[in-house]
Amino acid sequence: MKKEDAERLLEEGLARLEREDCPGAVEALARALAGLKEAGDPALLAICLEGLKRGALAAGSPDRALQALREMLALAGTGPEAGRVRLQRAALLLELGRFGEAAREAEAALGRLAGEKEEYRALFLRGLALLKEGREEEALAALGSQPGAAGAEQGRLFALQGVALCLLGRHREAVPVLESARALFPPGGVEGDQADLSLALALLVSGREEEALAGLRRLGGREEAPFHLRVEALLLAAAIPTGAWAKARAELAAGLAAAGALPESDLAAFFNLLQVCAEAAGEREAARRWFRRPGDPARSPFLVRALALMARGVAAAGPAAGERAVLAGACAILRREARDPRDRYLLQGVEEGLG
Which of 87, 221, 289, 355 has the most CB atoms in a 10 Å sphere around its CB? Predict the structure, then answer.
């Protein structure tokens, strides 16, 4: 293939990518890549591979994206740019549930990113991958080994240390670590909200129920917080007085079974709430098991349904009037977010049961 033909295909592929024709972009860029390799133009190769990676991810072809990143790594040399490519690979491998590979990629990235702004991102991803693999002690040691982080970077490391301590059953030790994390995040941010939720769980399992409830009510009432974190906080607050964890888990398990054989990343909302219920009930091994499933709960297509099913389980435990009002508030938030008629029907049933 002539170089000008490869360049034309590259332009076509990038244009298709901008139009969100991702399958067409991947096809054109793959053909361009072959021609650019013959031409030996590293700058155009890098542009083509970056586009191919983006297109493959958007088209739902993560293995093709990993292949593009592997080829980008070959072009990147041995310096910081190679570390940045490895960091991208680590994040994608984490998302795919390939935690051991992700930990190794993040560790290799750390060796290339010393003193770079991405260094602490690499440390965070390595710690998260180790946690997901069930290597909590190693993760805890790694997360505490970088004293130079500051601000939100240090907050993220503290927050993950707190999660590691909770997974190890050391909730009392986790409380001050999570408090430190919360203080380092800017007000009004999602990371601070998530730290508030983690802190409330740690307080609850440490026997400081009133403090946990106060934190959950604050988060549930913060209108600027993401809706799923507000609802999760309200559901936990309503569940604590009755210890409704078994009924909530039964509803979530039934919903998970009904969802069928879908990619685990789609089911992450169920996994997250099952982990939270197990942790609140003091069942550490079950919490560890659910934590080790892949995916981001906030991106799960079942996010509203999982929360609604947890609400139904909490309601089935017979909460008192005050907790019923909290549940009604959670359902009202979910109703505004529900798009699927099945979710709206489910919420209607919960609300009718609350009177």
Answer: 87
Residue type, 167: L
pLDDT, one tens digit per residue, over 182-197 is 999 988 899 999 999 9
Rounded-to-integer distance, Cα 13 and Cα 76, Å: 22
CA distance 143 to 127: 6
Each residue of 98-152: pLDDT tens digit? 999 999 999 999 889 888 888 899 999 999 999 999 999 999 998 876 656 678 8
Structure-token match 């939270």, residue found: 276
| The overall pTM is greater than 0.85 | yes
Nearest to residue 204, comparing CAs of 165, 241, 249, 168? 241
What is residue 130's three-state secondary structure?
A: helix
Indicate left, alpha or beta for 260 from its phi (over 0: left) and psi (-120 to 50: alpha).
left
Could you report the per-residue pLDDT of 309-318, keeping only the tens digit for each?
999 999 999 9
Amino acid (one-letter) located at 54:
R
Rg (alpha carbons) of the chain, rounded to whole number: 23
In percent, the amount of the chain with pLDDT more than 90 equals: 72
Degrees to nearest 5, angle at CA 298 with 347 and 21? 110
Helix (H) or strand (E) holding 285: helix 284-291
- The pLDDT assigned to 145 comes to 61
How does 118-144 read in b/e, with b if 16+ C-beta sit within 10 Å? bbbbbbbbbbbbbbbbebbebbbebbe
Residue type, 300: S
User: How far, in Å, CA of 160 to CA of 139, rounded?
Assistant: 9
Integer angstrom CA distances of residue 162 from 191, 202, 208: 13, 9, 16
Helix (H) or strand (E) holding 354: helix 341-354
Which residues are within 8 A (CB) of 352 and not within 5 positions of it... i.e. 6 or more apart? none
Kindly give, in sequence order, each residue whose CB lies less than 8 Å from that of residue 181, ignoring residues fewer than 6 positions away.
155, 156, 158, 159, 161, 162, 195
